[in-house]
Structure formats: C-alpha cells, structure tokens
Amino acid sequence: MVAPTKISELTLKLTDSIPAIELKINGAIAVHLNSLFLKKKRDIENQLRDLIGIWIRSQPEIQSLAMSGDLAGQFGLPDGTSLGVVNKIVTSIQQSTQVKMKKINKKLEGGLTLTCQPSSFANLLGLPDGHVKILDGDLHWLRWLLESGNKILVVNYHYTPSVGFGRSKIGIMDKGGAWRVPPEFAGILDDNFVTRAFLGKEKDLNALFSRILKG
Questions:
Q1: Residue partners of 159: CB distance under 8 A and separation at least 6
Q2: pLDDT digit string (tens) for 95-134?
Q3: Is there a contact between 171 and 165 (Cβ–Cβ < 8 Å)?
Q4: CA 85, CA 127: separation in Å to the nearest integer?
Q5: What distance in Å separates the CA atoms of residue 104 and residue 213, rounded to the nearest whole number?
Q6: pLDDT tens track for 153-165
Q7: 42-66 as b/e: b if 16+ CB within 10 A
Q8: 3-class state of residue 78 by DSSP
Q9: Is there a smaller number of Cβ atoms within 10 Å at the N or the C end of the chain?
C-alpha cells in the first residue's frame, strides 16, 4: 500500500514592503478607474443634466410659471410667454452643469467633481427672459423670485386675479396696499427654487452613478 503524499506547506516571501505593495495595488485600481471615468464622463454629464431638468421642473414656482398660473400673473409675464421663459431657465441651469475629471493617482486621490449652478446665480440673473419691460422701466422679476424673500417690492399696489386682463391675461395690479413675492414662492440666495430642487437628491445621484458605471 502506497502511503499518501504529504502536501508540503508553501511559504510566500514578500520582497516588497507593505506600503510598496499597496501602491502597486492602488496603481492598478487607479488605471482602471481613470479609464472607466474617462469613458463614462459624457454619459454622466448628459444624464445628470436630464435629471436636473426633472428636479427643476418639479418645483412649485416653475410649475406655476409654466402653466401660466398665479405666479405668472403676479409677475405680469406676457400672455403666452411663460412656458418659453421656463424652458430658458431650465436650460441655463442644465448648461451650467459639468462633470470634471482629475486623474486618480496611486494614492487614489482624484476622481470626478460635479459642478452645477453658480452660487452667484449670474447665469439666471443675466437672462433677458427674467425681465418684463414696462412703460416706465424694467421689472427684474427673476431676481425678485431668487433673492428678495418676503421684502415688499411694490408699494401702493396689490395683485388682483382677473381673467382676460393685464399683460398675463390672468391678473392686474390694483391701487392700494403693497405687493411682494407670495410667501410660498419667496426665495433668497441660499434658499430658493433652485437650491430647494437639489435637496435630498443623494439617492438619485447614487443611482445614476451606479447605473452608468456598472453598465
């Protein structure tokens, strides 16, 4: 009877230090991630812009403007123009969205950075569509919506809904009282319909990255 062969124990001798091994492993990971991010960067940017468009259009302020609702009347947007104005606002925010890539190194430093909507809101405040021209001046209604909060903006006049009347054909300004942006729509620079659109969207962003990077 032949005795079973004894399995020899193998001993691996590491010639590199642990830090050196870690750098080599991280280097391989970095090469893979850099290639993956470069390949998927455009898809991430395009799909992120689409997602942001959905978030912005879901805001009550934008819905009221788009459907020629009360807010369009309050600001006196000319009849038939409000949907086009909304599209310009959404497009401007989408176009400000960029995905920038910093090459990942062996320390796994770098990656993708998402930027969207300058904090100055210069892109939106510079839109001609954010103004309404009147005989004696210019009403920068989009600035009011973004940053004026609950301040009184017009004295000695108040808004009255009136179908078929006014520039918007849904309301006019009557003498007496005062006017401000309706409180439910009022915004300031760090709390307005744009900033609110991004609140609580971490899960949506994680799902977008997971879908694209695994696809």
A1: 73, 74, 171, 172, 173, 174, 179
A2: 999 999 899 898 889 988 989 999 999 999 999 999 998 8
A3: yes
A4: 9
A5: 16
A6: 999 999 999 999 9
A7: eebbeebbebbbebbeebebbebbb
A8: coil
A9: N
